[in-house]
Amino acid sequence: MTNKQWQAFCDFKEIFSKKVEEWKVLAPELTELQRDAAKAANTPDYPFETSVVYNRDLDRLTKEDDIHLIVIGDNPGKDEQLEKNNRYLVGQAGKIADGFFKKNPELQTDFRKNVIILNKTPVHSAKTAQLKKIMKDGGEKIYRLVEESQLWMADQTARLHCALVEGAEANVGANSVFPLPELWLVGYSELKPKHFFVPYRDRLFASYREQNPEVWKKVYVFQHFSMNRFTIDLKEYVEDGARESKTLLQNIHALGELHKKEIFG
Fold first, then answer.
1. Would the pLDDT of 173 be above 80?
2. Alpha helix (H) ranges present in 41-185?
3. Which of the four pLDDT bands, split at 50, 70 and 90, describes residue 246?
4. Which residues contact 241 (CB under 8 A, 6 or more apart)?
5. How confident is the model at residue 175 (pLDDT cuts 50, 70, 90)?
6. Is the distance from CB of 184 to CB of 115 less than 8 angstroms?
7. Cα angle: 162, vertex 103, 242; to 5 degrees
8. What is the pTM of this model?
9. Which of 89, 137, 140, 263 is 20 to 30 A off residue 29, Cα-Cα?
């Protein structure tokens, strides 16, 4: 990272960590609500250890690491909230994502060294759908907290991405595959109208428009890595219409633009 990128990244980590602790202190009842929501959904028992999760993988990145992508998942699941982890995308979906980049070395990207992994909210639930019950059962306080977490993450993520792109401009061309950092928004079904992450979707778009509309061109939307949906969707896209002649990244970008138009217009 350049000096400007590193400073922006460190600033983000600091305020993100503090905000997560603030939310945890504000809502100690979250753990019981998360347990009840999991039980109601017949989720197998598991230890509830972290109600709001900061991604400790952010602290493992160094100034020497080039950032190619910011990947945005939904929210921390069962594996992510364990105290021994407190890391994002470490379950099956994370393994699939890591495997995708290892199987495609032409992307020149190490999923754990060149990617900043964030979520649409750091509030834990075994499945994203359980957040709805948590918000309903928790009353106005919890409803507002979960919604605020979406809006806050959208604002700060857009701010970070813009800063990383702006900070890289003097260093454009240092990496031939990703000369400027991109943002990959994965899991688009809950971004559709009347779905759970609409507040995140709308605030994210507004934040880019306010801060640097040009960086919005570096945002792409995809299906989840979970259940291999990202790879299956990409494979079907490439096979439909004789797109095999294009490079992998060209097809990824084209598919990401297609889904982006579906979600954002």
1. no
2. 92-103, 130-137, 139-168
3. confident
4. none
5. low
6. no
7. 85
8. 0.95
9. 89
